[in-house]
C-alpha cells in the first residue's frame, strides 16, 4: 500500500491547525457572494453553516458569536438590497436566527457528551491500569516494554493480556488473547493474569505455571452457561528467562509464535509440541513441553497477539512481522514496539480491526548475573 505523500500530510496538518477559521471563512464567503450577486440570490446556506460548524469545532462563546455574526451579516445584506420589508427576506433572517439558536443547543449537548466520554475514558484507563499494570522498564539485564492498542476507538482495554513477573525462578512473561469481547473478556483477562501472577511466584517450572493458569480458566468456564462454557478459552505464550545463562524457555498454548530478533535477523519460535489453548486441558492429555532456545545478549523477544498478524491492507493482505522487521536494528524494546505499530499503521492505513497486545524483552549487551533468592 502506498504511504501518504509528504505534501498531502502537510496540507492535512495545516487544515487541522486552522479548523477554528472555518466559521469565519463561511461568513466572509457568504457576505461576499451575497453582496456581489443579484438581490434575490441568497447566501443563507453559508450563514447557517457558520454557527453549526462553530458548534462542532469551537466553544460555546464562539458558537454564539458565529450566530450573531450570521444574523448581522444577513440582516445587513437584506437591508442593503431593500428586502427586509419582503416576506421572503424576513423568513430568511428568521431561518438564520433559528439555526443559530439551535447551534447553541448543539454546542451544549456536544460539551456534555464530551464530558461523559472523558469520564468513560478515565474509568477505562483505571480499569486497564488495575488489570494490566505497566511492567518495570528493566529487571536485571532485561529491558521491557509493552503496548496495547484497542480496535475500538477510545477504548483502553479488551480481551488481550500481558504480564511480567520477577520470580525466584527467573523473569516470567505471558501474552494471551481471550476468546470473546466486552466485559466478559475483561473478567477472563483478570482471572488469567491473577492465576499467572500467583503461580509464577510458587511453581518451580514453567509447565507448572501453565497448568495452574489452565485450571483457573477451566474453573472460570464452569461458572458460565451454554456455548460460553464449552468454547471459552485463552490462547497464550508463556516465557521464562532465567536470572543466569543466555537461554529462555517457552510454552505455547495455541498462540501465534513469538519472534526472536538479533543482529537484524528475525526468527520465528513455533512450539515443538502444539497444544490446545488454556481452558481446554480436558480435551488434551499430557504435560506441556517446554522449548528452550538461545537468548544471547543484544537479542529481543517479541510476544504479540493475533491482532498483529491479522492486520490487513486494503487488498486483504495480512501484515507479516517477520518480513517487516527483517534487517532492522533497533535500540531497545520501546523502539521496536514503536516501529511495529508504525509499520502496521502504514500497512492498514490506520484501520485496526482487532485488539493488539505487544511485549518486547531485550537482553542488554552488558549482561551480568544476579543472585537468586533461596527457597
Q: Outline of this structure?
A:
With 375 residues, this protein is α+β, with helices and mostly antiparallel strands. The protein contains 11 helices and 11 strands.
Reconstruct the topology from this structure.
Elements (H helix, E strand, L loop, with lengths): L5 H12 L4 H14 L8 H14 L2 H21 L6 H45 L6 E2 L2 E8 L10 E8 L2 E9 L3 H21 L3 H17 L4 H5 L2 E8 L5 E7 L5 E4 L2 E4 L22 E4 L5 E5 L1 H4 L11 H5 L7 H16 L7 E8 L12
Antiparallel strand pairs: 1-2, 2-11, 3-4, 4-5, 5-6, 6-9, 7-8, 7-10, 10-11
Helix pairs in contact: 2-3, 2-4, 3-4, 3-5, 4-5, 6-7
What does this structure look like?
The chain has helices at 6-17, 22-35, 44-57, 60-80, 87-131, 182-202, 206-222, 227-231, 306-309, 321-325, 333-348; strands at residues 138-139, 142-149, 160-167, 170-178, 234-241, 247-253, 259-262, 265-268, 291-294, 300-304, 356-363. It is α+β, with helices and mostly antiparallel strands and 375 residues long. The strands form two sheets. It has a six-stranded antiparallel β-sheet with strand order 1-2-11-10-7-8. It has a five-stranded antiparallel β-sheet with strand order 3-4-5-6-9, with helices on one face. Strand 3 (160-167) and strand 4 (170-178) form a beta hairpin. The longest helix is centred in the first third of the chain and has 45 residues, at 87-131. The radius of gyration is 29 Å and the shape is elongated. It starts with 5 loop residues before the first helix and ends in a 12-residue tail after the last strand.
